[in-house]
Design goal:
The chain has about 150 residues and is an all-beta fold. The protein has a single domain, classed as YaeB-like (Elongation Factor Tu (Ef-tu), domain 3, Beta Barrel). It is about 5% helix and about 30% strand. It has a six-stranded antiparallel barrel with strand order 1-2-7-6-3-8. Strand 6 and strand 7 form a beta hairpin. It is globular, with a radius of gyration of 16 Å. About 20% of the residues are buried. The mean pLDDT is about 90.
Length: about 150
């Protein structure tokens, strides 16, 4: 089975170099724009009532993958699926952005942690009743600094 995804928009970011891009949205205060292409803009109805959104995107500058990687916050190897490393068999990333405003098909967001011109695949609402978990284990990350 094979899937083909087509972008529904593009993410505009102040970051143009991989090594200067924050490693996670929770570590970024950067403001950017999520531009949804006109043919999908109708899907934004009521989005302005949300405070946070999941944004799914393609790691468009990621080439190839490795099954064992050293993530940015550790010096030991881990399986790629135990990390958020961008070089993945399917180069799909996600972030939780704070939604600041909407103007037509443009969302202004905070917490941007992607390269400029990142292809947008989907947007989903962050819903605390669905997404928050009480008893969570973070594996290898629990031994790392949170800042």
């Amino acid at each position: 089975m094979e899937f083909i995804f087509k972008p529904i928009g593009v993410i505009h970011s102040p970051f143009t170099e991989k090594d200067k891009t924050p490693i996670q949205a929770s570590r970024s205060q950067a403001v950017g724009k999520v531009e949804v292409y006109a043919e999908f803009a109708g899907g934004l109805k009521d989005i302005e009532a949300l405070s946070h959104i999941y944004v799914l995107y393609a790691f468009h500058e990621s080439q190839g993958y490795q099954l064992h990687v050293k993530p940015f916050l550790d010096d030991r190897e881990h399986g790629v699926f135990a990390t958020r490393y961008p070089y993945r068999p399917n180069p799909i990333g996600f972030s939780v952005f704070r939604l600041l405003s909407r103007e037509d098909n443009i969302l202004t967001v905070a917490g941007v942690d992607v390269l400029d011109e990142t292809p947008l695949l989907d947007i989903k609402p962050y819903v605390p009743d669905f997404d928050h978990r009480e008893e969570v284990r973070a594996g290898w990350y629990e031994t790392r600094s949170k800042k």
